[in-house]
Design a protein that fits this description.
heterodimer, A: mainly alpha, two-stranded antiparallel sheet, 4 strands, B: mainly alpha, 5-stranded antiparallel β-sheet, two-stranded antiparallel ribbon, 68% helix, 6% strand
Chain lengths: 382, 537
């Protein structure tokens, strides 16, 4: 049913093209990496596979933020927290897979616990030696946190900038908490030194290729889920809440439930992105909770175009590619560029790259200019 | 004329050496000379005690040298010298420290000391430094005796007490005397009086002294000591609470300074300025630059650097804020989330700009002399820089309150806060007010930066550490209300400091954050919300 619905309404042409591109890269990039010899001009070096794999998880994170911000009007400045929690759940599984190969060779405890003189595994580490359990937690932990947080926040009608600030406070509190050694998550250093995932060596080229493909598939699934949600009746309601929350409430809907749903789904997506991110970069530490990271995710989404499906994906890929290039070529300039990007996009590109393209095409068609939704919203808001 | 000079010289000599009159140099020289005849550690020790009994600070040099093993006997004339260095030793007079030429180590013989003797010497030096002309040295010596009372030092203490003029040292001298009496062989009546004196001190040292005394004393003194101890513990606990309140107020005033500018921009204009922390940072860097310029051009005026930096920081941050408002924020009114992003961009640019100009490392901003040091209020130690920051925060608060309530600009600002369209209809130029308000809020952040440069590291990241806390304060206190900001800052500061001993600094902070997150759920508009009938989407 969902598939039919998707095919009928959700998957517009741009989204289909994007899905095709993602799936093609899922096949091609690993293939070009593994099958071709290193000397071949089309060979994709392994470091690039890992780098692009990382970008794909970022894209999924941006997409998850877009679901709440672009479609539901909730500007979360704490989405990095859900990403990091998913990452930590995966990191814990990877830590347990190290077994006796750690520096201390302790079969029961990860290295940092031995170092801290802990005698036994804390209860919340139980089960993480099983992949299925970790995979469940990757979704459950961020989801439940979002559910609880959102329940209280949306129930008491905390909206707008207040919500943004408390989401930021949430990720800041988690940052401080995870820095503590006695939390049992490796403190300052986080979790690292991973050996294998599902029996495969984390460092091996094949594993990297598989992880890349997995990230691409996850992103494709994320795109489809987001498309399905936003094109459904619920999606319409989300947009209604974004544009005129009070009016939606007075019409008899319950905006808090709509928001709660979007927030929770989005947190789960962010968690999955984090889980795919960790094995590819090989480390997860409390720095991921930094409020600055979460705000950067917002700019990816804004650059690409919020309130669209393909926008955040394009934005995340473009900004991160630029970041990699800048920090390599002109490390001094990068923060200027990023800061300028924030200002430029908010002032001149309110609908991002995708919005710009849409505008051009409309002008080409010489159609009478239509008011886009956020503008209409601004008028309603006043 | 010559007579006059002689008199002046004598007067100078007298002033430089107020201990004159305890013993003359010849007597000391004779005593020091006796070291040459001493054949055992006991004899040496007796000479040390005799020297210490003179109470003359001049003897301290010889004693220090003795403890260090530098006091030696010249074999040729059996005189005592201080010999330092290796190989060929430099000789110096044991009393005056005047150079006496050089000698090979074979021409000298060392006066031997053992650990027991060293202890005796140390105590003797402690007692002697009580009569040092330098008040700082006296204070240190007497404080050492307060915590380690010594019945042997009683004589020196009493002599010092009769000569001392500095009131803070007199108090400590009395305390040290009382402490020493407890462990001396004086009468029980004296000890009972001393007990009361020690108990009156109420410090942690006094209590440990009483504990030590109670362990050895006999009834009825033991009972008295125990009672005094219990009382002391109680008062100490009370002082502990007082100290925590002070720390809390101190932290609260820092939070207040950081947040009060934000309270204006956020409260009046509803603008989330994520670059607020960078305005604070700009203020701190202005202080740094002013200090550097003054260090180079007018080092004598360095103490006034802060007074000059204060208005400059206000101008620098205020102008940057004004520029931000005119250049960016005014295009984004009514879109708070976009404003948040754009100002975050500005904050990144400002940080990187400062990093490019001054480098990423911490810059050193010195405390002016009138802000360093500390004073004690009962059992609470209060550093002057914290004290001044509390005073400064309150001053800024009062001035701002006055400006908002008593000036035309303040009136217009409040009008715009309460009803923008009505204010506009009444002829208030709201865009102009917006720009000025933003400039004012940013300028105050800059002044906060001057204050924070005194207690925090001046680095490009300075502002980031405060931004989240400032938001918490403003949101907790309630938007658009300065009193809310004051109460919010002080509450958070004090709660934080009271949680710290139980939960640790980090966990305490997390708990406060969680508390605020929960609080906003209950009262989404803060403690002191503006009352109105608006239904906000």
């Amino acid at each position: 049913m969902i598939t039919r619905h998707l095919l009928q309404y959700g998957l517009t042409r741009p989204i289909l093209i994007m899905l095709a591109l993602i799936m093609a890269s899922a096949v091609l990039v690993p293939l070009l990496n593994l099958a071709l010899p290193q000397s071949h001009p089309l060979h994709v070096p392994t470091y690039l596979v890992a780098l692009f794999g990382k970008y794909l998880t970022y894209a999924l994170l941006a997409l998850s933020l877009d679901l709440v911000w672009g479609y539901c009007g909730i500007l979360s400045l704490g989405h990095g927290a859900f990403f990091a929690l998913g990452g930590y759940a995966m990191g814990m599984y990877l830590m347990r897979q190290i077994g006796t190969r750690g520096v201390y060779g302790n079969p029961d405890l990860p290295d940092f616990m031995v170092f801290l003189n802990w005698k036994e595994l804390p209860w919340y580490w139980y089960g993480f030696d099983q992949f299925w359990f970790a995979a469940l937690m990757v979704m459950l932990v961020p989801g439940l946190l979002a559910l609880a947080f959102g329940w209280f926040a949306f129930k008491s009608r905390v909206t707008g900038v207040y919500l943004s600030i408390i989401t930021q406070a949430m990720t800041y509190a988690l940052l401080l908490a995870f820095f503590r050694n006695d939390m049992g998550f490796g403190g300052n250093n986080g979790l690292t030194d991973f050996k294998e995932i599902l029996g495969l060596n984390v460092q091996a080229d094949t594993t990297r290729a598989i992880l890349f493909a997995a990230s691409a598939i996850a992103l494709a699934l994320g795109v489809m889920v987001t498309a399905a949600i936003t094109s459904s009746q619920l999606g319409k309601l989300m947009i209604a809440v974004r544009d005129a929350e009070s009016r939606t409430r007075f019409l008899g809907y319950r905006p808090e439930m709509v928001k709660l749903f979007a927030f929770t789904v989005s947190a789960v997506m962010a968690g999955i992105a984090g889980a795919l991110y960790v094995p590819q970069v090989g480390i997860i530490n409390p720095g991921e909770f930094d409020p600055g990271n979460s705000i950067e995710v917002v700019v990816w989404t804004a650059v690409g175009g919020r309130g669209t499906i393909i926008g955040p994906v394009i934005g995340a890929l473009a900004v991160n590619a630029a970041k990699s290039w800048f920090t390599g070529a002109f490390p001094e300039i990068w923060l200027f560029a990023l800061g300028g990007l924030f200002i430029f996009v908010t002032l001149f590109l309110p609908h991002g790259i995708v919005g710009l393209v849409q505008q051009w095409r409309e002008r080409e068609r010489k159609a009478p200019p239509e008011k886009t939704e956020p503008e209409a919203a601004a008028q309603v808001g006043e | 004329m010559r007579h006059f000079l002689t008199i002046a010289f004598m007067l100078l000599a007298f002033l430089a050496n107020p201990s004159k009159g305890f013993a003359d140099e010849a007597k000391l020289r004779e005593l020091v000379g006796k070291f040459a005849q001493a054949n055992s550690f006991e004899e040496t020790s007796r000479i040390v005690l005799e020297l210490s009994a003179t109470g003359d600070g001049l003897a301290a040099r010889a004693l220090t040298a003795l403890a260090d093993g530098d006091l030696q006997i010249r074999k040729s004339d059996k005189s005592i010298v201080i010999a330092t260095g290796s190989g060929t030793l430099k000789l110096a007079d044991p009393l005056t420290g005047d150079a006496l030429g050089e000698a090979k180590s074979s021409e000298l013989s060392k006066i031997k000391v053992n650990n027991n003797l060293r202890r005796v010497i140390r105590d003797a030096i402690g007692a002697l430094t009580l009569s040092s002309p330098d008040a700082g040295v006296r204070l240190k010596a007497v404080e050492n005796l307060v915590s380690n009372p010594d019945p042997l030092a009683l004589g020196a203490l009493e002599t010092a007490l009769s000569a001392e003029t500095d009131p803070t040292i007199i108090i400590r001298l009395k305390a040290a005397r009382a402490g020493s009496i407890l462990f001396s062989d004086r009468s029980d009546a004296d000890k009972s009086q001393a007990l009361k004196d020690v108990a009156a001190l109420g410090s942690r040292d006094a209590i440990s002294l009483l504990t030590k005394f109670a362990a050895t004393a006999a009834e009825p003194l033991q009972g008295e000591a125990l009672a005094a101890m219990a009382k002391g513990e109680d008062s100490l606990a009370l002082w502990g609470v007082g100290q925590n309140v002070w720390y809390g107020v101190s932290l609260g005033s820092v939070l207040l300074l950081a947040a009060i500018g934000l309270a204006i921009t956020f409260g009046v204009m509803g603008v989330i300025n994520m670059a607020h922390g960078e305005m604070v940072m700009l203020g701190a860097y202005t202080t740094f630059v002013v200090q550097e310029i003054m260090r180079a051009s007018a080092p004598g005026m360095l103490d006034w650097a802060l007074a000059i930096a204060l208005p400059l920081a206000f101008l620098v941050s205020g102008l940057v804020g004004l520029g931000m408002e005119r250049g960016i924020i005014r295009f984004l009114y009514g879109r708070p989330l976009e404003t948040l992003l754009a100002t975050w961009g500005v904050s990144l640019i400002l940080q990187q700009a400062i990093r490019s100009i001054f480098g990423p490392t911490n810059q050193e901003v010195s405390n002016p002399s009138w802000m360093s040091g500390a004073f004690e209020l009962g059992q609470i130690t209060i550093t002057w820089n914290r004290m001044f920051i509390v005073i400064f925060a309150i001053a800024v608060f009062v001035v701002l309150l006055w400006a908002l309530n008593r000036t035309p600009l303040g009136l217009q600002m409040r009008a715009v806060t309460q009803n923008r369209r009505m204010a506009s209809a009444m002829g208030i130029r709201t865009p102009w007010i917006d720009a000025l308000t933003f400039g004012l809020g940013s300028g105050i952040a800059g002044m906060a930066g001057v204050a924070l440069s005194q207690i925090d590291n001046v680095s490009p990241n300075l502002g980031q550490g405060y931004i989240i806390d400032s938001f918490m304060v403003v949101v907790f206190g309630g938007v658009g209300n300065l009193w809310g900001t004051l109460v919010g800052a002080m509450t958070l500061g004090i709660v934080n400091k009271f949680l710290e001993p139980y939960a640790g600094a980090v966990l305490g902070k997390i708990l406060v954050l969680v508390f605020i997150i929960a609080f906003i759920q209950r009262r989404p508009r803060g403690l002191f919300a503006l009352k109105g009938r608006a239904v906000e989407a």
